[in-house]
Amino acid sequence: MEIFLIIMLIFLIISSIAVAFIENLFSVVIVFMVYSLIMAILWEQLNAPDLAITEAAVGAGVTTVLFIITLRKMRGNKNV
Fold first, then answer.
1. Which pTM was predicted?
2. Rounded to whole angstroms, how far apart are CA atoms 45 and 47?
3. Which of 21, 40, 62, 73 could be bridged to 55 by S-S, CB 3.0 to 4.6 A?
4. How far apart are CA 33 and CA 13, in angstroms?
5. Mean pLDDT value across the chain
């Protein structure tokens, strides 16, 4: 189980660094969603199921939907 946590932490670090360097905004939103899902898994492994559910619902769910809606509205605007 310790190896699983180390692998998840490595993916967490990689995804957090990737968000800073990716230029395509849609890809950034997807990587941010993956980051939130990894955090939810780690919260569950740390025996904090309430935080895991909140992270999955808000971080990976609601925030991702709001970001995608915002991107669609930005692409609809010719000035952006």
1. 0.84
2. 5
3. 40
4. 14
5. 91
